[in-house]
Design a protein that fits this description.
The structure holds two protein chains of two kinds. Chain A is α/β, with parallel strands linked by helices. Helix content of chain A is about 50%, strand content about 20%. Chain A contains seven helices and eight strands; from the N terminus they run E-E-E-H-E-H-E-E-H-E-E-H-H-H-H. The longest helix of chain A is centred in the last third of the chain and has 30 residues, at about 175-205. The radius of gyration of chain A is 28 Å and the shape is elongated. Chain A starts with a strand and ends with a helix. Helix content of chain B is about 80%, strand content about 0%. Chain B contains six helices and no strands. Chains A and B meet through helix 4, helix 5, helix 6 and helix 7 of A and helix 1, helix 2, helix 3 and helix 4 of B.
């Protein structure tokens, strides 16, 4: 009876509305015999309650249990993550907080501006510049325009290249370090939340005395 | 002819110097995980271009203003914006640095103060604020 197998792959993170009814089709990709696929996809896994908070983990074991209750003859084969994170947002989709975004932009703008000026003051950049010009041209007493303009261009160019923006056409699919760092950060947060949620469910199962 | 060679060399040295500074600047910010935290706060996932543009505009703008002496004659009230944002920026940078160096978790664990983590953090924050205020209001003017 090879056709009684359900292949499942859970998504990592799903945005849901408060009070939503979560079906298996919402949180997983399903591959199964067409006889079951529809029924399994509509299988209700969880109803969001206000006390669930804004992040909720659903474990693969929970899902397997529900599928077996639906039809004990089914075998479940799983791939990928053994859990899925549900994030509750009012529109069912994460929207940026625009006011905070403007504040963050200004923060980075003024902050990085001050940081570069701090750096210049710290290393006595004007003196160094005049010295370099003197060493290279033999004349000390000129305003170092010739140094300062390429230097300013270089700062911007260096940043752009680090952000992987200039050679985008060539390195098309390569993400930039910022994107990688953002991804790693999210990954770490997810990992932490999942570990916490596992601890919570274990506590629930053991009862309050344990 | 020799003069022109010298001038070209100056330009090349300037460009390379800027290059090194620019990429080192970004690398430092990325190591400190400042931007991922801001992304999480603003929920602006997958919009890294916004944050990059802020850094780029800030660095280029202030760099040019610094080197070429661009002066704006604005009223004193305008100082509030850079003051607040730069203060927050330095605060975040300092906090990120201690986080990267794992100071607080290690201290808390060694001294078994895990439960008082919030108090330890508060002590650090208050210490920084008090230190900054004392520095600017009491000690700095004496050097003039």
């Amino acid at each position: 009876m090879g056709d009684g197998i359900v292949y499942l792959r859970l998504r990592r993170r799903v945005d849901v509305m408060p009070g939503a009814i979560i079906t298996l089709g919402d949180i997983a990709s399903i591959e199964a015999d067409s006889r079951y696929e529809d029924r399994i996809g509509k299988l209700v896994i969880w109803k969001m309650r206000p006390e669930d908070g804004n992040l909720l983990m659903i474990d693969m074991l929970q899902i397997v249990r529900l599928i077996r209750r639906l039809d004990p003859s089914l075998t479940v084969e799983t791939f990928g993550e053994p859990h899925v994170l549900l994030e509750v947002t009012s529109e069912g989709k994460v929207k940026p907080r625009y006011l905070l975004l403007v504040a963050a932009w200004l923060l980075l703008f003024f902050g990085s501006g001050m940081a570069i000026m701090n750096f210049h003051a710290d290393v006595d950049m004007p003196v160094v510049q005049r010295r370099i010009v003197e060493l290279l041209t033999g004349r000390p007493d000129r305003h170092a325009w010739l140094f300062e303009v390429p230097y300013s261009l270089g700062v911007g160019l260096g940043m752009l290249i680090f952000f992987n923006r200039v050679f985008r056409k060539r390195l098309n699919d390569e993400p930039n370090p910022l994107e990688v760092e953002m991804f790693m950060y999210q990954q770490n947060v997810n990992h932490y939340v999942i570990t916490q949620e596992y601890a919570k469910t274990r506590q629930r199962e053991d009862g309050p005395d344990a | 002819m020799r003069e022109l060679g010298g001038e070209i060399l100056v330009a090349i040295v300037g460009l390379s110097g800027g290059f090194a500074v620019g990429s080192a600047f970004v690398a430092l910010l990325i190591v400190l995980d400042l931007i991922p935290r801001l992304v999480q706060l603003t929920r602006a996932y997958r919009r890294s271009a916004i944050f990059e543009s802020a850094l780029l505009a800030g660095v280029i703008g202030f760099n040019c203003a610094d080197l070429f002496d661009w002066r704006l004659s604005l009223g004193k009230g305008w100082l509030v914006a850079p003051a607040v944002f730069q203060g927050v920026f330095v605060g975040m940078l300092a906090a990120a640095l201690t986080e990267v160096l794992n100071v607080i978790p290690i201290v808390a664990k060694r001294l078994r103060l895990n439960r008082y983590l919030l108090l330890l953090l508060l002590a650090m924050v208050l210490g920084k604020v008090a230190g900054s205020l004392a520095d600017w209001l009491l000690f700095q003017p004496m050097h003039d």
